[in-house]
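Subject: Sanity check before I submit

Could someone independently write out the structure tokens for this chain? I want to compare against mine line by line before I put it in a report. The sequence has 344 residues.
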Amino acid sequence: MKIAMLSPIAWRTPPRHYGPWENIVSLLTEGLVQRGIDVSLFATQDSETTAKLISVSPNGYEEDKTLVPKVWECLHISEVFERGHEFDLIHNHFDYLPLTYMGMTETPVVTTIHGFSSPGILPVFRKYNGRAYYVAISDSDRHPDLDYVATVHHGIDLGQFTFEPNIGDYLLFFGRIHDEKGTSECIEIAHQTGMKLIMAGIIQDQAYFDREVKPHLDGDRIVYVGSVGPEERDRLLGGAYTLLHPIHFDEPFGLSVIEAMACGTPVIAIERGSMPEVVADGKTGFLVTSVAEMLAAIPEIGRIDRCQCRKWVEERFSVNRMVDDYIRVYKGVLARSKQEDIRI
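---
Independent answer below. Compare away.
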């Protein structure tokens, strides 16, 4: 089996700090190579992989602002599809744009839909529904207009997350600084409980940060540490009392949630999107419907077994499980495409 793995090029694969899609592509690629599968990773030139690296863009365009994103995206995607005949299957992690290149090759295309940025992108997915093979990252993120071959929850490399058996003493927000992630609600909770709050993540909405976050930063009780790399991420997640996840949108998955639980840290999350698939309510944290309920859940964190949090992730969200699931998808798609060739 020869797989062309198409990664985004906003960031390096794997990312140095932020880059959730690139992170999943890297974990999947390395896991497939370890299984003896022939993988060619299409990513930035500075990417690191044990697969065959094929690159057009020198760097991620979020890291090198001299690059015009659409220009390098077009060059990057076309490189994959112009060489489609070299592979048994193309696995697209680049959202909707590569679907419009499918006429360039007969090679089947598996597309993992990492969430819908807006309803405006649905016309592309609808047009290629039935030609591309769609994979959802949670059951909650399946769109009723589309057909899917599978749901594959993300997996993480548990070796990157150290289990911390002792409960921490600070609240943690870990994610994009944006209204839909509920950053300001975490600040409100910190003020009302008197607990320290540490916030980590990229600033995706500068105006929101300047208005809702920056005025509260004091370097002591309310702290923003920026976007952090793997080692600092591990330390922050493991040392927290709880991870707060007061989202305002239907979260497609939520990597930071399983990463926190892998370290033993319980999660308090608004019950939207994938959260019921990711958090075991009352066992690895609490699912709530409001900030008031989040506040009420905070004193209950002490009764959550941190070992159970780690076990939950080990059993359901390991990278090995994710790799197994995708191999099943690939085999099913290849068998189906061969049957369609015979009928034609």
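---
OP: Matches mine. For the report I'm noting this point. The mean pLDDT is 96.
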